[in-house]
Amino acid sequence: MSMNRRQLLAALSASAALPGLSFARQEALGDPRFVLVLLRGGADGLAAIPPTGDPDYARQRGRLALDPAACTPLDDTFRLHPSLSPLAGWYEEGSLLALQAVGLAYRGRSHFDAQDALENGTAEAKGAHDGWLNRALHDRGKTPATAIGVSLPLVLRGPAPAASVDPTRQSGAPEDYLDQVAALYAEDVLLGPALAEARGVQAQVGEAGTAMSGGRKARRAARLEAGMEAAGGLLADPGGPRVMVLEGGGWDTHARQGMGDGTLARQLASLAKGLTALRTGLGDSWQHTTIVCVSEFGRTVRPNGTSGTDHGTGGFALLAGGRVRGGRVVSDWPGLSPAAQLDGRDLRPTLDVRAVFKAALHGSLGIEDAALDRLVFPDSAAVKRPEGWFRA
Amino acid sequence: MIRFTRASVAGPFFPFISGPELTMASKRDAAWMAVHHFGLGARPGELKSARDDPRGWLAAQLEGPHSGAEAALSKMPSHGVLLAEGAKSRGDKQAHRRWRRGVLEREVSARLFVAATTRRPFRERWARFFSNHLCVSATKKPILATVGAYEREAVRPHDTGRFGQLVRATTRHPAMLLYLDNQRSTGPDSPLGRRKGLGLNENLARELLELHTLGVDGGYGQHDVIALAQMLTGWTVRLPKDGEDDVLDDVFVFAPRRHQPGAKRLLDTAYPLAGVREAEAAIDVLAVHPSTARHLSTKLARHFVADAPPPEVVALLERAWLDTEGDLKAVGTALVTSDGVWDALARVGPRKLRTPEELIIAMARSAGVKASTGAEADWADRMVKACAWLGQPPLAPPSPQGWPDEAADWAAPEQVLRRVELAETVGRRLSREFLPSAEPVAWAREVLGPSLDADLQQRVARAPDRATAFALVLASPAFQWR
After folding, report:
1. What share of chain A has pLDDT > 90, as a percent?
2. What is the pLDDT of residue A213?
3. Residue B254 pairs with which residues in a beta bridge?
4. B297 touches chain A (CB under 8 A)
5. A351 has which bridge partners?
6. pLDDT of residue B148
7. Nearest-angstrom CA–CA distance, A165 and A163
8. Which residues of chain A neighbour B415 with C-beta distances below 8 Å?
9. How confident is the model at residue A314 (pLDDT cuts 50, 70, 90)?
């Protein structure tokens, strides 16, 4: 017999909300920060964490195969794309966990449906109308989860309060005009506080000088980078948000994706730069921070006719932060031989992406399995939470 | 003085707009509610046209087909013609992408123009409510070029008919069949299903029950979803190929070889094998089901009265729905003429935050936009872009649920800041081009009617320049809420 929604909510708030945790557990978690980075478009995991040690790698990847000598080795099988080398130090100190052959239970290759499934936390594109991160935060109080951007991504939609800010652009409106509007909003309990908060973020950004001169026209990758830089400061602020979502596009590399340089290399370099800036902004809060980077799917193993790759299935994910037990690549590696490929074209996924999210939510925010398996990721008890990815 | 706050309801906002004795002041307030709240925002002079009989002014808009300004839409090509046109460029990916993007831009600016100029703004809001309720979305690339045609062909012509008629039209429209993946859904025991081992796709059936009719708690189970999906097998499309001479306006086809044989059982009622008639009959039954009446009445009350729908308004609409078997004209008439609705509005006041799309439409109306060519067309394109910048790209809702309809969904801090910035940009544009000689306080009176309070009036009068005066009006709570 399954619990009804109300009972589930009660169970969740009892077991997972911080006040319900034992003192020792709370102590261990500290004041946790959780950052989700969505790489939209299907990022090529075989380029980000190339399996150069796989006997089929060079032949199958063909002209997109990276030169192993240019990539930092991670273990016997995997290396790091040259553009991600700023993260090699994280890996070495053990705060970066790389995951390979990660995928959705959804097996179509539509961006639209795959992103919906990734964000709604079910096995299907239409499995839920709200997002897993919102459901995970139900009843946790404090400051709302915050997305960088104008509107809320699906993953943050739902019953729990959530907000969005855009610290990557500088408002063009004159201050005296904004002051007048703020006065008009003095008694408006919705618009008033919202405008005040946005202006506060603007002021913070203005001081830090992180707003980009290019504004809206800036490259998409650069926008994500700037967003991460600003997010670090917001998360470090004692009164700031504790859960943030960032998203960036430009990963749909159907043509001329390049190898050590080119489109994809620039995307990855920007991601590494953004993550580095995020960590800098976090300062000491890094110790209590967990960052998850994922994309809706990976790309085809073999290059297509236009020196790019098409929509695939298995991809990669990164888990980073002060309490992550990293310094390793976790993968039940299926291999790249033609027989091992899914449908004779894609990396076969061997780890459900929800397992990654479960480990991250449990390790970072202390959310218990009962809630993870039923409410946060409905009907997902079969997707076990991996153990040992976080320091106690 | 009217104050726009969301939490405090100290007393009635419009004590006079209901009741038998209509005074001058009460008529003025009711006219303003008709134009500003039920309509799409006042065009200069519009308040006067509604003043004599605000309820009658609204109810009359439900008579007859869409007309007048809507002519712009009736001239646009059918989905069949559009798909045939698209087939020509399908070989060249770049060209095809450019083409469909162009179609969407034309559709979006045409409907913005209609909304900005129509003299029947309540009817336009009414049609858009159902378009959003039964939405398709340009986020799905294969239907990007036909989402506009969908609204023109399936929604607008049926927005005052029976709800069953409307839902039959939307369900069979190729954009909907493709959006919710019904085109290849095949009965496992049908000739094609047996030969090729094909099966059902439940997507359309599930959304029909969950979103379009009964509602998520409407009392159906997984077996009902499967039964409806079986009835819908064979509802598909015949996409035109390049070089075909015969261009059909409508590419819907019923493919008997995909249709699941045998009787079906939906909501404990047996439906004998009847091909395309099965799902049509089922939709007619679903459309008048008490759960559907409740679901739609609640959504209507949320859209037309308040985010927290007053139970007495829901009950009143439900009764109209059930009494008339889902006659949308009757339901709409009950909405705009019932004392219960006006009483509720008088009590809660303007409590709906304009969505970004409603906001840009109201801005265009306040400017008195007239022509769909030249500088005004260019401006319309900018407004469409602004709408996307505010988080609501027209005709591209994020999911089959459509755009959300509560203030909290549209008031994230960044969004509010952008609203205020847009008001500033538009204010400058109005002062330069559209209203170069308007007297700002007089214009504010036209646009905000009785909700122009003393504080705002003073700020407008004292603004350093005309652009700032306009901007303050457009950013004000009175303008942002309806």
Report:
1. 62
2. 40
3. B235
4. no
5. A102
6. 97
7. 7
8. 150-151, 164, 194
9. very high
**Listed residue (B436, B433, B427) closest to B467, CA to CA:** B427
Task: Record the tokens describing residue B364, joined without a space.
Answer: 């265009």
Token pair for B204: 């359309």
Number of CB pairs, chain A paired with chain B, less than 8 A apart: 106
Three-state DSSP at A201 gives helix
Please state the pTM of the whole predicted model. 0.78
- The DSSP call for residue B327 is B
DSSP string, B361-396: HHHHHHTT---SSHHHHHHHHHHHHHHHHTT--TT-
Which of B204, B416, B479 to mutate: most A Cβ within 10 Å?
A: B416
Based on the number of CB atoms within 10 Å of its own CB, is B222 exposed (0-12), middle (13-18) or buried (19 or more)? exposed
First to last CA, chain A: 34
Which residues in chain B have their CB less than 8 angstroms from residue A162's CB?
412
| Continuous segment of H or E residues that includes residue A356 | helix A353-365
Among A164, A178, A181, A202, pick the best mutation site for testing chain B contact (most B Cβ within 10 A).
A181
B247 alpha carbon, distance to own chain's centre? 29
Residue of B417, B424, B458 to mutate for A, most A C-beta atoms under 10 A = B417
Could you tell me the two tokens for A90?
């994280």
Q: Does B254 touch chain A (CB under 8 A)?
A: no
Contact criterion met (CB below 8 Å) for B411 and A190: yes
Residue B444 in tokens: 């504010």
**By C-alpha distance, which of B380, B334, B343, B344 is closest to B360?**
B380
3-state secondary structure of B256: helix
Q: Which of A240-254, A345-359, B113-127, B364-378 has the lowest mean pLDDT?
A: B364-378
DSSP per position, A285-337? GGGGEEEEEEES--BBSS--TTSS--B-S-EEEEEEETTB--SEEE------S
* Residue B240 confidence (pLDDT): 85
SS3 of residue B236 by DSSP: strand
Task: Find, among A61, A14, A168, A210, the residue nearest to B417 by Cα.
Answer: A168
Does pLDDT of A14 surpass 50?
A: no
User: Residue written as tokens 């408006």?
Assistant: A188
Find the range with the poorest average confidence among A46-60, A150-164, B290-304: A150-164
- Cβ separation B413–A197 shorter than 8 A: yes
Residue ranges, chain B, pLDDT below 50: 1-12, 15-16, 18-22
Radius of gyration for chain B, computed over Cα atoms and rounded to the nearest angstrom: 24
Between A207 and A34, name the one with better pLDDT. Answer: A34
* Interchain contact, A165 vs B140, CB within 8 Å: no
State the nearest Cα–Cα gap between A176 and chain B, in angstroms.
10
pLDDT at residue B21 in the model? 46
Indicate the range of A202-216, A321-335, B195-209 predicted with least confidence: A202-216
The CA distance from A220 to A40, in Å, is 11
Residue B127 confidence (pLDDT): 97
Please provide residue B271's backbone torsions phi and psi, each rounded to the nearest 5 degrees: -120, 115
Which value, to the nearest 10 degrees, does the dihedral of the CA atoms of residues B32, B38, B40, B45 take?
A: -30
Q: How confident is the model at residue A206 (pLDDT cuts 50, 70, 90)?
A: low
In this prediction the ipTM stands at: 0.90
Distance in angstroms (rounded) separating the CA atoms of residues B472 and B457: 10
Stretch A296-301: mean pLDDT, rounded?
96
